[in-house]
Specification:
With about 325 residues, the chain is α+β, with helices and mostly antiparallel strands. The chain folds into two domains: about 10-200, Formyl transferase, N-terminal domain (Rossmann fold, 3-Layer(aba) Sandwich); about 210-305, Methionyl-tRNA Fmet Formyltransferase, Chain A, domain 2. It has eight helices and 17 strands. It has helices at about 20-30, 50-60, 75-80, 100, 125-130, 165-185, 220-230, 295-300, and strands at about 10-15, 30-35, 40, 45-50, 65, 85-90, 110-115, 135-145, 155-160, 235-240, 245-250, 250-255, 265-270, 270-275, 280-285, 285-290, 295. The strands form four sheets. A seven-stranded mixed beta sheet has the order 5-2-1-6-7-8-9. A four-stranded antiparallel beta sheet has the order 10-11-16-17. The model has no long low-confidence stretch (mean pLDDT about 95). It catalyses: L-methionyl-tRNA(fMet) + (6R)-10-formyltetrahydrofolate = N-formyl-L-methionyl-tRNA(fMet) + (6S)-5,6,7,8-tetrahydrofolate + H(+).
């Protein structure tokens, strides 16, 4: 019989972000099944490649399932039931779970969500917290229901965001926090008290699209840098000159700079460029024209005077 503070766990996750969480759980609990998304074609050769969680589970020789669909999948539902999991944990798994599946483990499903719910429900809470200039985020352990991050809260912890963190550094910090919190929640599983979310306070964090990386020069310098931090992993920061796209890197706010029109290149600053925004200016350290290697921004500057403005068709 399973010990009350040592429940058997089924783990659902896919990307590298979930690996510290899986390893922390495995160190203290029996992981009876790992579930990841199916292998996908990757790279120029479109080689079929397992997601990081699946590859890690294979190395550890943990039981692994990669169902293509969940809804109406009686075979996978039976597999989850037969593995004997007392509880399931999801971490960046990437699929909505049907109610029939949620009911299989006797303690249901716990989800590690990288925001202080009900703020930033959805697929990209790390990125949108940065884009919108948040200075604090955190991790929520919640009981999963059939909605999009709408289930009751079980445990929460805030995390201050360092001013220079991009989505990459913030994800690392949140993965470490999530790993610690979920282990604590699993130890306390029989005594956790669910707290309903206040839906009136909910905000949303949808999947990023390529246009989310396009620079809005007409915004403030701080907003431009915040967006740059949020899209650092993907789709990265993109600007336009003469109809061509450039990838920009190393954007920071220039303190006390207020001259020029939005998008105007004001001057070189060593290897960097200073570019005016709607309010203030930013420093660009490197850029990469299409089909070329990254270069110091000032090297590219000689033939160009300004970046083109781009505005989204909807907010």
């Amino acid at each position: 019989m399973t010990s009350p503070d040592r429940p058997r766990v089924a783990f659902f996750g896919s990307p590298a972000f979930a690996l510290p969480v899986l390893d922390a759980i495995r160190a203290e609990f029996e992981v009876v099944l790992v579930v990841a998304q199916p292998d996908k074609p990757v790279g120029r050769g479109l080689k079929l490649t397992p997601p990081p969680v699946a590859a890690h589970a294979a190395v550890l020789r943990l039981p692994l399932a990669q169902p293509r669909k969940l809804r109406g999948n009686a075979a996978f539902e039976a597999q989850l039931r037969e593995c004997g999991a007392d509880v399931a944990v999801t971490c960046a798994y990437g699929k909505i779970l049907p109610g029939s599946l949620l009911a299989v483990p006797r303690h249901g499903f716990l989800n590690t969500h990288t925001s202080l719910l009900p703020a930033y429900r959805g697929a990209a809470p790390i990125q949108w917290a940065l884009i919108r200039g948040e200075t604090v985020t955190g991790t929520t352990i919640m009981q999963t229901d059939e909605g999009m991050d709408t289930g009751p809260l079980l445990r929460q912890e805030a995390l201050p965001i360092a001013p220079d963190w991009t989505a990459l550094e913030l994800a690392d910090a949140l993965a470490t926090q999530a790993a610690r919190l979920i282990v604590s929640a699993l130890h306390d599983l029989p005594t956790l008290i669910p707290t309903p979310q206040d839906d009136s306070q909910a905000t949303h964090a949808p999947l990023l699209v390529k246009e989310d990386g396009f620079v809005r020069w007409q915004e403030s310098a701080q907003a431009v840098v915040n967006r740059h931090r949020g899209v650092a992993a993907w789709p990265q920061t993109t600007a336009f000159v003469g109809g061509s796209r450039l990838k920009l890197a190393g954007l920071t706010v220039v303190e006390g700079e207020n001259g020029g029109e939005a998008g105007q290149i004001l001057r070189a600053d060593g290897d960097a460029l200073i570019v005016a925004c709607g309010v203030g200016a930013v420093r660009i350290q490197t850029l990469q024209p299409e089909a070329r290697k990254p270069q110091a921004a000032a090297q590219w500057w000689q033939a160009h005077a300004r970046f083109e403005l781009w505005e989204p068709t909807h907010p």
